[in-house]
Design a protein that fits this description.
- The chain has 16 helices and 17 strands.
- By secondary structure, it is an alpha+beta fold.
- It folds into four domains: about 1-115, PAS domain (Beta-Lactamase, 2-Layer Sandwich), CATH 3.30.450.20; about 135-240, 2-Layer Sandwich (Beta-Lactamase), CATH 3.30.450; about 250-320, Orthogonal Bundle (Helix Hairpins); about 330-480, Heat Shock Protein 90 (2-Layer Sandwich).
- A five-stranded antiparallel β-sheet has the order 2-1-5-4-3. Strands 7-6-10-9-8 form a five-stranded antiparallel β-sheet.
- Helix 11 (about 295-320) crosses helix 16 (about 445-455).
- The chain is rod-shaped, with a radius of gyration of 41 Å.
Amino acid sequence: MELSREEYQILFENVPAFIAVVNQNYIIVQANQNFKNTFGGDVGRPCYEAYKGLGQKCPDCLVEKTFLERKPQVSEECGRTKEGATIPYLVRTAPIFDPQGKIPYVIEMAVDLREKKRLEGELHASQDFLTQLIENSIDGIVAVDASGRVIVFNRTAEQILGYQASEALGSMNLEKFFPKNFSRKMADALKGKGEKSSPRMVARETHLLSKTGQRIPVRFVGTMLMPGHCPMGAVGFFQDLRPLKFLEREKLQAERLAAVGQTVAGLAHGMKNMITGLEGGVFAIQKARRIQDDMLLQKGLEMIERNGGKISSLVKDLLSYSKERVPDLRWIRPNDLAAEACTPFQEKARQGQVQLIPDFDPHMGLAYLDPQGIDTCLSNLLSNAVDACLLDNGKSHHQVTVRTRRNEDQSVSFDVEDNGIGMSDEVKKKLFTSFFSTKGASGTGLGLLVTQKIIHEMGGFISVETEPQKGSRFCITLPQEDLLPLPEKEETS
């Protein structure tokens, strides 16, 4: 029994808490060393004086409640150390019963909360800092937790996408706030179905859909949050590119108009020849009518038709290049569109003994494209390809291949490849500069400029591979991954 008392005394004195035993008059009758070191509470002093430096009992005295209710009490209090410093602590009281069931004493056990409060303050300060950083960022920021629920939707995201944070927070429809390709990989990763590596998009241009359905051009960076092998969420950062795109369009428009003016001046001689051809055709028709010569009449009509076609084509290309155009996107079958683009060139190719070869992807399906724009681009490239073969005298066999492909990232490619005269590196560098043409006086150089402009308007790009005397390959690539879902009824071109 004596050993137990010694053990109890050691425990009482060394436990990492403040312990005091108080009688019914609130006088401390016993206190451990930790209590004395902190509060200086000598035995015989009132507890309210020792803990808080008060001259009377605390208004909500836990000791009093314990005596009255005969059960433990818990409260978070604020006291004063013997040096006069403020100290927060968590105190728990418990009644001490005697053999007759009375309560002569109450024991108070308190834990120092200063370190906890300090850490809480630092945590709150850190959270406030991060909140201000996120809310005032010039980038839209959207984050989701491990369950795929949106937990962060800052002010810039509201401004860009048109949703209020209250509408977005808690949503699990990730395709509303992230590019489709990324949101699908992210959803798979959160469900444990995706790749083990963290899906990530870095500084790439794409589109997001606003609340009203508007396509917003953005520069997007997204990544999974994976401190270990278990994903805890994901975050996306996106920058609104509309102001930049507006400035780019303004600059391009000014450059186009300037280039059109330069070209009109440069083509004045050619246009004069076209007009002279028209005048010659009119003269021939008038003379044919006077002398009743049907052959001369037909020749005059052909002259007017030929030169009128040249002027019409030139004016259309000039208008197409100089005017800003919004793509008329719709669901079409790219293979059908490519086949239709080949039709007008079949006779010219046959007469020039050029083989026109279709090579269409059987798994292409539907794509969201501008049919008129694609037709114009393919027509320009096909015309150039056939001409390149007709100008080549070094081969006995010529062919032009029109190819369609669905790429791994779901983008759509159109290739026009020929084995004609090809181009040198010097000529290749000039292809998309203002009105450069390899056809001399018979070409304006507008075809490729119009083609490039239309492709850029659809968010795609055009590349070229060429080698002198071996041929050329032009490839148009158009994105599809962040577009609208497939329609219920499939449209055809």
